[in-house]
Every structure is written in structure tokens, then in C-alpha cells.
Amino acid sequence: MTAYATDDLLDYDEAMERFDPVLGLEVHVELSTASKMFCSCSTNSDAEPNTNVCPVCLGLPGSLPAINGKAVESAIRIGLALNCEIAEWSRMSRKNYFYPDMTKDYQISQYDEPICHDGYVDLEVDGQTYHVEVERAHMEEDAGKSLHVGGSDGRIQGAQYSLLDYNRAGVPLIEIVTKPVRGLGAKAPEVARAYMAHLRDVMLALGVSEARMERGNLRCDANVSLMPKGSDVLGTRTETKNVNSLRSVEGALRYEICRQAAVLASGGSVRQQTRMWQESGEYTIAGRDKSDAEDYRYFPEPDLVPVAPSREWVEELRATLPELPAVKRSRLKQQWGFDDVEMSAIVNAGALDLIEQTTEAGCAPASARKWWLTELSRRANEAGVELAEVGMSPAQVAQLQNLVDDGTLTDKLARQVIDGVTAGEGDPQQVVDARGLAVVSDDAALGTAVDDAIAANPDVAERIRGGKVQAAGALIGQVMKAMKGQADAKRVRELILEKLS
Ligand code: ADP
Ligand code: MG
Ligand code: ZN
């Protein structure tokens, strides 16, 4: 296997001059229910291999599945959050195929009767709104995990043997499929990324999934095809499988667009195939060729009754949906008085909830924003951790700003307090006390330092006596330096002018 891309690529801008990309995003969401989709086994993913299994999820003959009510509820709530219709009657189907990680030789999924259908998502990218239509969101079960041993980088090719872990077999999944998304132009990869980020935020707001892409809780199969400019006929698509970071979704689509454009521009035709994103080299490689009429011999699952959620239940779930990310964002934007640029900086930094909690703890929004987006973001970056794990809580940030507001701290001293808090030395007040960081405004202490500064700078003192009040700045600087930045600058100024008048 090569470690670099061998495909011809057309420059992205040139590709965009000649072609319009069309996207199709299939996203799998792993639900965080306590038990699996059709049995009572735990979904805990940290368990020893093959310990969370039973006759149902191992597909033993004679075992019977029973549907997980909580998973159905989550499916409906997800559908509602994506503006879908909720089917009055829906059914599970068997999708037949063989793979060693699938115990039954079929996956219980949904085919022509998904529980949620015909929804949409509106996304904002660079100040423009993009409308993405959701074709369906259906329920299914996950497969087990294969571990190929002895080959290169865990691939089955060249492996000596494979290990199978069925703990994940039967874990509930919701698959969300878009209609073909046209009209995105050069923004297509960014819109796909924004769509994934939106789904992640929705799942977190609903509390139905951990939604950690790096753990595979949320994974995307990214389809893309190109149409020559002016054409209205969909081109042949490729499907890059299991892309599991926001950055990779954008990167994989960009790469595929450049690759397909080069194929088409040289008179070739795109092969309909699955592809795999190579994280290391940032390119895709071919998987298997795939036709639309792939025959899974779907048929209705005879061991499960249809899912027919009552309208009362659906309305009850609709009425109790939490505030969704887009609504929350515009509410807070209004409330805080920030503009679009400020808000997107906050969202991109993952600081929205932290700033909200900081303001709830009594801090002004602008100050909360300042600490989280400057000092704390910088420290989180340096430490390579999420902002929420930087070692300072929203309540502590609010306490810090309080100490600045009441004159105990200058901004400069506050930064030293942050050092202490993030080093685990306690709350801001404790750090101030322990490190002796408070501003000194006591006249006795300041007076001595002012006298020293005057004595050391007779020429400056003379100018101030002669009416050059601005010259006081130089003396204030001296006092500050002598007192390690802890002098109350306003009081120092007053004392200097009193003494020299
Ligand atoms: P499959 O079973 O092959 O994954 P699906 O119908 O589940 O097929 O998903 C295909 C995805 O690709 C859907 O989001 C669909 O809207 C989208 N799609 C279909 N045709 C095209 C095309 N020509 N170009 C881009 N996307 C497409
Ligand atoms: Mg697919
Ligand atoms: Zn089980």
C-alpha cells in the first residue's frame, strides 16, 4: 500500500469553474441507551470483548428480538429536531448480507417504512443559509467489530487472522440520510462540515448520544458526484465510508471533488464505488464497486411487531424537546448583543455553553467572552485539551471578573490568578490570598513607594510641579514596577499629584 495519493487531481477552483458538486450525506448516530436495540445487553463499550452478549445479539437460532422503547423514543425526538414527519406506522426490515461481524447474516434495519422522513436542516455558513433536505432517519442495529491481526495497519489484506468482538452487535443506531444536496457550489465541503457539527450539537442537546466523532458515535458516509456546469443530470457518485471527524468530512469531499473532476475533465467516467479516507495522507482510496441495485433482499422482519407511535406520544415528545442549537444561538446573540462574527468565533471555539454558564454566575457577557476566547483558549490550545477541561470552571471565571470589577485585581494580575486556578490552587480568591496578588491601595504602602519614585526622579518631579501633569505617567510606571504591578494606579496618581502640588 502506498502512503501517498496517486490520483490525478484537478485544482479545486478550476473544478468549481467546470462542475457543480452534489452531496449525499448518510450519518450514523450511536444512541447512548443503557441497553441494546433488541435485547437487554449493556451497551458499555469499555467492557471486555464478548462479555455484553446474549442469544439475541449473537443471533442464536430460536432467540427472539424485542424492540428497545427508549431507542424508539430517541429516534422520534431526533426526527422532530430535524423537522421530519413521524410515520404513523413503520416497520423493521431484514437487510441480508454476510459478514463475520454480523451474527445473524442479516441486519435488522428499516427499508421502505422508516420511522422519520422528509425533514430538513438550515445551516449558516459564512453568513449564507443553506437548506439541506433530510430524506429519512431510520432505526437499525450496529454490527460487531473485527480486528485484523498480522497485516499492515489493521487491514484485512495480508492479515494472519481476525478477532471478533460482538459487544457492539445490536447497539442502537439512527441513520440519517439526506436527499441529494445541490446548489452548494464551492462551499459544498464546508456545508457538509457544518451539517455534521449541527447534528452533533442536536444530539448533545437532545441527550440521545455522546456524539463523539473520534469514538465513532457519529460517523458519516459522504457521497459526492459532479455535474458539468449547466447540466441538470446527476453524475455518478462515490461514497467515502465512515469519516469520523469534522475536518475529515470536509477534506474527503474536497479531495473527491478534485479527483472526480480530473477523471471527467480527461474524458473518463467516475466509477460508482465506496472509498476510504486515509487520515494520514489526506486522500481517498478505492473500496468496492457498488451498484444502486445492490440486492440485500430486504423483507419485513417477521419477529417484530410494527412500530406505530401514537400521535399523542409524538406531540408529547415534540412539546418537551429542549431548546435546539440554532434557536439557542440566536437567543444568546440577542441577549448578549454580539454580532455574527463574534458569535461564530464563540461557537467555533466550543465556548457557547461555557460563556452562558459564566454569565449565569454573574459575569458580564463581554468579560466572559474575553476570558474564554483569549487567555483560556490559549491555555487549552497549549495543553491540547478541550476548553471545558482547561482547569477553570465558569463559576471561577465569574469570580475572577468580580475581583477585577471590585478593584482587587488588574487584568494583568487576573492572568496570574488564572495560572494559579488552572494549576489547581483553588478558587480565584484563594489564589489571590495564597499568592498575595491583590492590588495594593493602602496609602501607607503606596506612599512609601511614591516617595521613593519622586526621590529617584527629581527632574520628572520638577516638571510635574511646573504643571506638566502628564509626566506623572513615568512615576506611576516606577511605582508599579517597584510593587510588581500590584499598585492601585488611580490612587498612585492621586498621591503623586497631592505630593507635588
Ligand atoms: P447507499 O445504500 O448506496 O448508501 P443511500 O440511498 O442510502 O444509498 O444513500 C445515498 C446517498 O447519496 C443519499 O444521501 C442520496 O441522497 C445521495 N445521492 C444519491 N444519488 C446521488 C448522486 N448522484 N450524487 C450525490 N449524491 C447522491
Ligand atoms: Mg450508504
Ligand atoms: Zn444481547
From TrEMBL:
Gene3D superfamilies: 1.10.10.410. The keyword Lipoprotein does not apply. Its EC number is 6.3.5.-. PROSITE patterns: GATB. Residues 353-500 form the Asn/Gln amidotransferase domain. The keyword Ligase applies. It catalyses: L-aspartyl-tRNA(Asn) + L-glutamine + ATP + H2O = L-asparaginyl-tRNA(Asn) + L-glutamate + ADP + phosphate + 2 H(+); L-glutamyl-tRNA(Gln) + L-glutamine + ATP + H2O = L-glutaminyl-tRNA(Gln) + L-glutamate + ADP + phosphate + H(+). One of its GO terms (biological process) is glutaminyl-tRNAGln biosynthesis via transamidation. Pfam families: GatB_N (PF02934), GatB_Yqey (PF02637). It is an enzyme of class 6 (ligase). Keywords: ATP-binding, Ligase, Nucleotide-binding, Protein biosynthesis, Transferase. One of its GO terms (molecular function) is glutaminyl-tRNA synthase (glutamine-hydrolyzing) activity. HAMAP family: GatB. Belongs to the GatB/GatE family. GatB subfamily. Allows the formation of correctly charged Asn-tRNA(Asn) or Gln-tRNA(Gln) through the transamidation of misacylated Asp-tRNA(Asn) or Glu-tRNA(Gln) in organisms which lack either or both of asparaginyl-tRNA or glutaminyl-tRNA synthetases. The reaction takes place in the presence of glutamine and ATP through an activated phospho-Asp-tRNA(Asn) or phospho-Glu-tRNA(Gln). This is Aspartyl/glutamyl-tRNA(Asn/Gln) amidotransferase subunit B.
